[in-house]
Amino acid sequence: MGPTEDLFDGQPSGLPEPMPRGSARYQLAAGEPAKVRHVEGYAPFIDFCTGCGVRAEVLASDPERLIAFLRTFGGEIENDGTLSAAAAVFAGNAIARLRPDAEWTAYEGASPMVGNRHRQFDVDRLLVALRSADEESVRGFVSALLDWAREEVDESPAMQPVPVSPTSGQPRYVRPDLPAAIYYSPDGEPIPYGRQWGDEGPDPDSYSVDSHPERFAGLHVVARALIDHLAAAYDVEVHEDPVQARDILIDVRDVLHAVRVTPRRSGAAPLTFVLTGYPGVVVHAGVLHDFPFPVCGCDACDETAETTAERMEMLVLTVAAGGYAERYPVGRRRWSEYALTAFDGSGSESGSGEPPVAATRLHEAEIRLRDVAGPWRPWPLRGS
Question: Domain spans of the chain?
Fold first, then answer.
């Protein structure tokens, strides 16, 4: 009989139900799902610690020692799929223990995350990254983790924008056909993007490889189709001019086209599409948030044009439906925060951080969001 999984607060449970990435009709949830802070399945890691002469309960309460242990024994852990999964669960539980507002979250087709609404950690990727990181990077991560643990708990309620349902007769968006192509490795073997890695996770060397960025060229076609749909369905102004790329906050190079779509309604969030030579697309929503597509094109992340297009469509159609909210400043550190509730009811997401913006623009954003006073409004339909 294995060790008892009682090193963290509360009864252990399974991971939360993954938020689906497919389509569904939007409807309000019957109630808030229970928070998951203690996930089961880490008994093999306790046994491994015992075999190494280390008490697992010490690692559970000391993140610095835990990180050092995972780094020291990362090779042995990674070579055993069961042990690797157990170590990831243990690490996630230890991170959740650091803050009362931390919890596990899961999305369909993605690794589970643990953290609060201001910061989340992918523990599966953490275990892989620790093996190749240098000492300075590890110390920086531990310091950031401890700083996060000491931050004051944000008592302000989470933003919960509610998108409107589509009306009868409203034009429906249809994704254009994406170009089909087969991409090959240096050895001449076809690369199955989207399903390259099994239970063991990505090859550590694949994080620095971006072998075929041209597979994302279809995102330009999707962006144009979304712009055309917005112009057909909503009462908007469309301006295409390279100067519109100034809306983007992050560093964007090789700008090919920039299009700003502004709804003719006070309190509705504008969208700016910047098509890059990577090829990729960056969408600026509202006043303080950029969304890059793809987020990362490296082989380890294994994104495809189809999955990336789906995320871009979800963002754009959700903003137009009024399922988007922004807030600034948040807390003592004056972070910016966003929240999305998918237009089709398929899930929600949020994020926050320190906006990389000059003080003048931050002040303007603060005034604008104060006038909005809540989630951004749905876009007005054309002809309504």
Answer: 1-155, 212-372
Report the 3 state secondary structure along the chain: CCCCCCCCCCCCECCCCCECCCCCCCCCCCCCCCCCCCECCCHHHHHHHHHCCCCHHHHHHCHHHHHHHHHHCHHHHHCCHHHHHHHHHHHHHHHHCCCCCCEEECECCCCCEEECCCCEECHHHHHHHHHHCCHHHHHHHHHHHHHHHHCCCCCCCCCCCCCCCCCCCCCCCCCCCCCCCCCECCCCCECCCCCCCCCCCCCHHHHHCCCCHHHHCHHHHHHHHHHHHHHHHECEEEEECHHHHHHCCCCCCCEEEEEEEEECCCCECCEEEEEECCCEEEEEECCCEEEEECCCCCCCCCCCHHHHHHHHHHHHHHHHCCCEEEEEEECCCCEEEEEEECCCCCCEEEEEECCCCCHHHHHHHHHHHHHHCCCCECCCECCC
Quickly tell me which residue has 């990674």 as its tokens.
78
Prediction pTM value: 0.69
Report pLDDT digits (tens) over 331-361. 777 889 999 999 998 888 888 888 888 999 9
| Structure tokens, 73 | 């024994």
Q: Is 357 exposed, middle or buried (0-12, 13-18, 19+ CB in 10 A)?
A: middle
Tens-place pLDDT, residues 54-88: 999 999 999 999 999 999 999 899 889 899 999 99
Q: What does the block give as tokens for 255?
A: 């700008």
